[in-house]
Specification:
By secondary structure, this protein is of the alpha/beta class. Helices cover 38% and strands 14% of the residues. It binds iron/sulfur cluster (SF4). Iron/sulfur cluster binds next to loops.
Length: 323
Amino acid sequence: MMMISGLRYNAYSEYLRQRYGEKVYKLPVSLPVTCPNRDGQCGHDGCVFCGEIGAGYENLPAWLTVSDQLSANKAHIAPKYKAKKFIPYFQNFSNTYLPVEQLKRHVIEACQEDIVAIALATRPDCISDRYLAMLAEVREKYGIDISIELGLQTVNYHTLAKINRGHTLAEFIDAAQRIKCWPIEVCAHLILNLPWDDMTDAIESAKIVSALRVDQVKLHALYIVKNTVMADWYQNGAITLISKEEYVTRVVAFLEHLHPDIVIQRLIGRAPAANTLFTNWQTGWWKIRDAIEEQLLTQDTWQGKKCLYLNGPAVRNMELGTI
Ligand code: SF4
């Protein structure tokens, strides 16, 4: 089954085009934040794969104001792509790990004329009703959409302990359900090839985020960032990674089980090779995306084809007489 975009999954670029009438560009913004898994509140060492600069390789320094960062990034992107609409992306570390009034000032500073939405990446344990009420108030006052990207990585809570996440699956479920009570979108960030996970975990990840009705998902393959615990494990052979072909197969199975309405922000991430020991099997991210699209086609499958497990499948099948 094809989506409007001609793809077999619900692509974010098409979602943005439909919602805002044209192509929309994300602008990375750094806030002066850290992470409760680094400052000692729930841990000192962070997740085993997390580099010292967090996830934001393309970010400007956090001592620049939000306005200055947006201006600098717009000056670079707008003429190059003739871009007119933007989404500030507060990406690095845990962007809601600030006092609520301070966060509010940063978010309001980003509410500029050509901004259509704001995306905040954070951890599930950095979301509360008080923060959501503030964000909903800003959304209402400035007419700008707000989405929260929650790092989950995997639904396998044994793996979450191994990667030293400092939270379990329960905190993610709680945060996702709370966000859904407000006019704010929720995106789940997942890594489908963590060394201890298998196909069952990938499929269960799709089923849980579908059952929670998250709005978007963002998939990554694991990077091995230099000078991390994961890098030590990788170098001394304590972990091995699945092949590129297995990753493609896992993503296809994930998509088959994912609710068809969920928007896919990414099928594979990107990281500069200079900072990593391993990135995407040393293959261009677009080649892996193309391989996933090719496998969807050759298997004649699509996002949601196997999303048959919600809303009482046993009684549904009984009443339809299919058992
Ligand atoms: S939660 Fe994010 S910022 Fe914090 S240690 Fe883990 S990966 Fe790094």
